[in-house]
């Protein structure tokens, strides 16, 4: 079954960690695109091996345009929800779309084949997916810093039902990864944190 997985890193006070505010001394490297990927290194690359399609918003895509060499998705199909005109990235499989996330989600799932859909970035696009009940799992890495302000990790429009904790994992530098499932019947296994300790 194809899962839609929100993979994200956030501060202790609940704000997204992205390329602009990754803490010094915590393995800065590849672009994060809102996922905190440069903090997570090999684990994020392993996770991408299980991803068949990616969905993101305009703000996340715009951050990659500043350094297209940082594009981590190769030829994985990427769907960009946007009302703006953007250039493509050479060699990338990108589809620009306008409309409600629920309208396009079946097409994104189809593109993923037998693999998972990665919801990258955060903010408004994550809220839309969550409000429409389209996030199956969330791999949430807590980074041990407070930012004081920024984009909330999941700015939903209403209170959600309690998520099911599938597993936890420490990733170094004091970070903890929490892997949750949402919705009924989601208490089984997950995809985002293999080898985790619970």
Describe the structure.
- The chain has 198 residues and is of the alpha/beta class.
- It is built from five helices and eight strands; from the N terminus they run βααβαββαβαβββ.
- It has an eight-stranded mixed β-sheet with strand order 4-3-2-5-1-6-8-7, with helices on both faces.
- The radius of gyration is 16 Å and the shape is globular.
- The two termini are 24 Å apart.
- Mean pLDDT is 82; it is low at 25-32 and 187-198.
Write the layout of secondary structure elements.
Blueprint: E1 4-11, H1 37-40, H2 42-48, E2 51-57, H3 58-65, E3 78-81, E4 94-97, H4 101-112, E5 116-119, H5 124-131, E6 137-143, E7 164-172, E8 175-181
Parallel strand pairs: 1-5, 1-6, 2-3, 2-5, 3-4
Antiparallel strand pairs: 6-8, 7-8
Properties at a glance:
alpha/beta, 198 residues, disordered C terminus, 5 helices
Task: Offer a concise description of the structure.
The chain is α/β, with parallel strands linked by helices and 198 residues long. The protein has five helices and eight strands, in the order βααβαββαβαβββ.
